[in-house]
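Students often ask why inverse folding is considered easier than folding. One informal answer: many sequences map to the same fold, so there is more than one right answer. In these notes we will look at a single instance of the problem. The structure comes first.
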């Protein structure tokens, strides 16, 4: 698998929980080529390397939400244990604690995925700031010089709104129903 494909595969496993970009222990263990139990045991043996800003345990409500929203985590539904979520630093530290060749190699891809997401987020914020500044400048020009016709200002507003809509991520597609679906109304 090439580097870009691997980074994209890792990016798909990064979730936002409590406002933080994290990876669930199950996904991290799979990437690092170990069982989830082995990953969590290694973390517990090295607890001093995992402060609260590196990892946290999901609440029961968070677990239900993750299982509901992430098809690949459906197997967690029947697990009694609450999964752990690792931030970027926690995922790197887990790679270091495991120290297997696969964990070290995949740790690099995890870092690249988090960095890439940060860059995308930063460029969106930068673009939004530039768009706001441009909108303010056109408003000032129209107020000061009143040379822009009313319809031109309206067209600028439409352009700004269209750009903002393009910057928002597309909504998730609706999930297909599971099981037998009847066309008849009951």
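Output (designed amino acids):
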């Amino acid at each position: 698998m090439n580097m870009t494909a691997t980074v994209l595969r890792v990016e798909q496993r990064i979730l936002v929980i409590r406002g933080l970009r994290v990876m669930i222990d199950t996904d991290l263990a799979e990437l690092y080529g170990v069982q989830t139990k082995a990953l969590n045991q290694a973390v517990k043996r090295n607890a001093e390397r995992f402060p609260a800003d590196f990892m946290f345990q999901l609440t029961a409500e968070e677990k239900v939400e993750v299982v509901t929203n992430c098809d690949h985590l459906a197997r967690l539904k029947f697990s009694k244990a609450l999964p752990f979520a690792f931030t970027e630093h926690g995922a790197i530290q887990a790679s270091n604690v495991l120290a297997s060749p696969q964990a070290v190699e995949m740790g690099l891809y995890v870092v690249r995925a988090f960095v890439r997401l940060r860059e995308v987020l930063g460029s969106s914020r930068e673009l939004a700031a530039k768009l706001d500044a441009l909108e303010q400048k056109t408003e000032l020009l129209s107020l000061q010089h009143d040379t822009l016709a009313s319809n031109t200002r309206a067209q600028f507003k439409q352009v700004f709104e269209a750009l903002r809509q393009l910057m928002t991520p597309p909504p998730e597609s609706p999930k297909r129903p599971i099981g037998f679906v009847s066309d008849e109304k009951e």
